[in-house]
Design goal:
By secondary structure, the chain is an alpha+beta fold. It is 41% helix and 25% strand. The chain has three helices and five strands. The strands form two sheets. Strands 4-3-5 form a three-stranded antiparallel beta sheet. Strands 1-2 form a two-stranded antiparallel sheet. Strand 1 and strand 2 form a beta hairpin. The protein is rod-shaped and about 75 Å long. The structure holds L-tyrosinamide. The site of L-tyrosinamide (TYC) has 13 residues, from strand 3, helix 1 and helix 2.
């Protein structure tokens, strides 16, 4: 319990600090490769990251041209689940698409 001494020697209770801790966030990142079809990457971005066709295409091309791109930013458990889901989906379709999470 937080208390504070007054000048007159009495003690008062401080209000509890109720600030919530913000969870650390992680980037979910797609990596480029030479084999996964562009259309498949667009489907992944729509299906697992809630993007529309246009935004998914922009992100896919960013990955294709620069080597990697951020799909979204999430708390650790959510980010880890996205990575698992995308990796399983890619494997099931026999594409080498790599998806990783990055912290700071
Ligand atoms: N480079 C791939 C191609 O030319 C397309 C691609 C884009 C692959 C993004 C992976 O994360 C990726 N078919």
């Amino acid at each position: 319990m937080a208390t504070r001494k007054q000048r007159d020697g009495s003690t008062v209770l401080e209000p509890e600090k109720t600030r919530e801790k913000v969870p650390p966030l992680y980037r979910v990142v797609l990596l480029n490769d030479d084999y996964t079809p562009m259309d498949f990457v667009v489907v992944v971005l729509e299906k697992f990251f809630g993007m529309g066709r246009e935004q998914a295409t922009v992100v896919m091309l960013q990955v294709h041209r620069s080597g990697k791109g951020v799909c979204g930013v999430y708390p650790r458990d959510v980010a880890a689940t996205k990575v698992e889901q995308v990796s399983a989906f890619a494997q099931r379709h026999q594409h080498p698409l790599a998806c990783v999470m990055e912290g700071n």
